[in-house]
Recover the amino acids of this structure.
């Protein structure tokens, strides 16, 4: 039997120059980003099905742009829901975590990472807020339909 080339319990981390806290932060960011993308894709598929439109295609640039827009909008709506219930004493730290991100588009995600580290029930809240948002989006009569529907006043 050959010996494993790396020593330690977590060989996948060897060669990673980042410290433990940086790796944890990066893993949280990836997991949250993935959860938002999955929720946005489901929302996009469901709203299209409700409107009688075809499912998105991975090869379509227009569908990809719509997906990215849906994911960004979902992230902003989740931010609003979390902030509405955030304890006052955590708000300055939250603002600081968002401000530490150099790119404006990355700030809401940085805020979610902060919340995931501070709120013991973050993932339960995430799931609850995401599901409520999906229900709101699917029940919203003002959602855009096809241009023919709008032309003839149908929703």
């Amino acid at each position: 039997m050959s010996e494993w080339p790396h020593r330690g319990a977590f060989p996948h981390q060897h060669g990673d120059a980042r410290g433990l806290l940086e790796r944890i932060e990066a893993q949280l960011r990836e997991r949250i980003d993935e959860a938002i993308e999955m929720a946005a894709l489901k929302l996009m598929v469901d709203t299209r099905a409700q409107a009688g439109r075809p499912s998105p295609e991975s090869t379509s640039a227009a569908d990809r742009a719509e997906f990215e827009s849906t994911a960004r909008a979902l992230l902003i709506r989740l931010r609003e829901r979390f902030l509405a219930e955030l304890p006052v004493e955590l708000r300055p730290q939250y603002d600081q975590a968002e401000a530490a991100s150099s790119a404006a588009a990355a700030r809401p995600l940085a805020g979610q990472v902060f919340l995931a580290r501070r709120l013991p029930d973050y993932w339960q809240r995430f799931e609850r807020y995401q599901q409520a948002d999906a229900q709101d989006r699917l029940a919203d009569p003002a959602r855009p339909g096809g241009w023919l529907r709008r032309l003839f006043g149908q929703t």
Observations:
- The first helix runs from residue 20 to 50.
- DSSP finds six helices and no strands in the chain.
